[in-house]
Amino acid sequence: DLGLLKFDFLGLSNLTILEHARNIVQKTRGVEIDYDHLPLDDKKSFALMREGRTTGVFQLESAGMKRYLKELKPTEIEDIIAMVSLYRPGPMELIPDYIAGKHGRKIPEYLHPKLRPVLEKTYGIAVYQEQVMKMAQDLAGFTLGEADVLRKAMGKKIASLLNEQKSKFVEGCVKNGMTKKLGEKIFEFIEPFAGYGFNRSHAACYAMIAYQTAYMKANFPAEFMASLLPADQQNTDRVAIEIEECKAMGLKVLPPDVNESHRSFTVVRDEDGGFTTIRFGLLAIKNVGEHIADAIVAERKERGQFESLEDLLKRVQDKDLNKKSLESFIRCGALDRFGDRNQMMYNIDALLSYHKKVVEEKLGRQSSLFGDQFIATSLRLEAAPPLDPRQELAWEKELLGLYLSRHPMEEFLPVLKGFVIPCREARKAVDGQTVKICGVVSTIKKIFTRKNEAMCFVKVEDMGDSMEVIVFPSTLAETAQAWIADTIVAVEGRISLKDNEPKILCSRVKVVTDELINQLKKTQVPTAAVQPVHAPEGAADETF
Prior knowledge:
Blueprint: H1 13-29, H2 43-50, H3 63-72, H4 77-86, H5 95-102, H6 115-119, H7 129-140, H8 144-155, H9 159-175, H10 180-196, H11 200-219, H12 221-231, H13 236-248, E1 252-254, E2 266-268, E3 277-279, H14 290-303, H15 309-315, H16 323-332, H17 341-346, H18 348-363, H19 371-376, H20 389-400, H21 413-416, H22 423-426, E4 434-448, E5 454-461, E6 466-471, H23 473-479, E7 488-496, E8 503-511, H24 514-521
Parallel strand pairs: 1-3, 6-8
Antiparallel strand pairs: 2-3, 4-5, 4-7, 5-6, 7-8
């Protein structure tokens, strides 16, 4: 109305991911990737989509989209453009028809021969706004400008404009040799599609980015995942999902290492010359800033890898190599090649004193009688007791945001099998079904009800997924000691699908201890990890 043209500028992190992936491929393999000239018939890319292995692939990674991709079995970019357009509220109900049309199970019928060339590519379904405009142009003689007015009237359901456009459309059809009745019928056919028709040019752009990310994941998996992980670095839930995806792809994700890690996640060459290993970046470590990460990488590039702990402390003479950052490097495993974590932590003051002495000598431009040799032999570490493996995992979770080397539940899995189901399976249960899961208490959010009674929302995560557990006041009062971060718990409760996100309404919980595991070893494995929807409360085995 004001005569102004509006532009929408959309920023996508996926473009950054693609750029990083291209740079890593160039560095690791010496291969130049030109996204503007990728082959659009890459067999690996379409196989990845047909199998639903699309975690991290732009627009194609939701559970519903994966399911439809497996049914559709896409073979060309047109399929991806259509799926991007159809997978939205409203047109989603047309996806089965599109799939049936692609596989010849449903033959499209056209109200008029002129509809065939417009709709043939989408198996008789009007998917795009451009198709709506083309039908108005070909059947009713509309100009493209007039067709856009019709699209707008239909899409925004502007009643006064819609009635005017309907009369104009039917009149145009009659002029082109059709009956008034057929013109009205065609208008009624077009109208629902126009209500949710997607802009094809927009969908094509999205589909190209989807294809490019699928291409990189299929052909350069380690480089792609090493680019995806830092994009979600602040979201530990996403990083955990992506780490699991790496494992499913046969990729190894290793903890940070001062001799191999860069600022961000990177790919390191395997012993056999392959590329299946990803290293955590130094910036992914809590309490490690950009300055010290850059200083370590720059020193390593200039003078080679660090040969020992003493060598590291001598060469990285940076103020940001302080107690907080050094402890973080030790506890997350970035210095494992130089010694035992607990021994280094036990001697942290000696390490800092040694580093301070080196820095002071350099700043004072002094030289001891024996030079560097004196300094290098002056560091002595006292013996320390062995580190509890569970403490090592706790440090890892604290500093990297997830369990990387192994999961605390790993040692219990052989015994737990049969007593519980994975969170991933529990998510598939129906509303009201009673399930048992086991996992680590990740986050706890306590609130107070209107009656001023405490209840909490707890995230419990196992080795492959997580679920939200709702603990109501009466249950919380009896089980408060179980809801502590990093505690392994077995939870029983009913599934709630409210808000379309599966949650467990907790009825019972037990802390998983060595004593309980020993007890379970003597117990015959029950078959009550999942119960029928109407099973009575407490019907499950009382041992677990």
